[in-house]
Amino acid sequence: MARDRSPKCKQCRREGMKLFLKGERCLTEKCAVERRSYPPGEHGRGRIKQSEYLLQLREKQKARRFYGLLEKQFRTYYAKAAKGSGITGEELLRMLETRLDNVVYRLGFAASRAQARQLVRHGHFHVNGRRVNIPSFQVRPDTIITMAPGSSAEQVAPWLQADHDALTGKILKLPERSEIDTPVQESLIVELYSK
Asked: For the whole model, what pTM was predicted?
């Protein structure tokens, strides 16, 4: 299984914003974006020619890194979203939001998406009573997710319902674009792939 092992803080600096890839560290003064707000590398402080392609590519990379996907996985999600009925960009974000690892993060059972992915991979979660260890598992409305005892909780997204005492979560409905707080412009991603 391939994984992105590049430095997480360097990815945030490349995108020019906090992607919260390191969990709690992104909220402290140790965050690399707070210390050095310019892109990494030898030519990080230089001028960059802003082309249309560059803006589209940066948005795609930002979304890919935000959800922790590799290029092939992201392209597959785009192909499925393009085949579906509805606006392609919103459909893409809806599919990314309803991945099991992202739902676990949104329910507050993990501090970061990477931690949520690891918890799912190690088999700590049950979906409708069945153990699921696939982070890309697509959840649907009225799905109930339970976790083994011994977890802490965070803030919950509005399209989810979490019972932190019983360590369970329920998907109330599919998220609308207004409920997805991913800092990307999905129209630029659609423009990039539709070339």
From this structure: 0.72
